[in-house]
Amino acid sequence: ASPLPIGLELQCEPRACVSPRIAGAHADYSSCVGKVTGEDCTVVCLPGYAASQQGVNFSLDCDSTGTFEDSSGLVCVPEQPCTALIAEGVEDTSDCARVMPGHTCQVSCPTGYAS
User: Fold this and answer.
1) What's the predicted TM-score (pTM) here?
2) CB 27 within 8 A of CB 48
3) Confidence band, pLDDT 50/70/90 cuts, at residue 77
């Protein structure tokens, strides 16, 4: 680099990080917006999902290249599957087995019954 002209000062600014967007991560990265080199952000799992290790923060560090580094190794995993809240009866809830949060299932009447 060539020397600066007399009277000018070099001002170095931290590099801005590009907000992470990981497809299928089931996480909210909004706290990462506007972060620069040396700053970190906490990632929050979306409703129905939880960090893969309880008690460990899911955080990302903005590195010198302008990208986020994951120092935690955590991911958001589905919480327990939903259960159908149906009174004990003859309803067919087989479609609701292992339905994950945020998804729906179909409850129906078995053959010989009407709703």
Assistant:
1) 0.56
2) no
3) confident
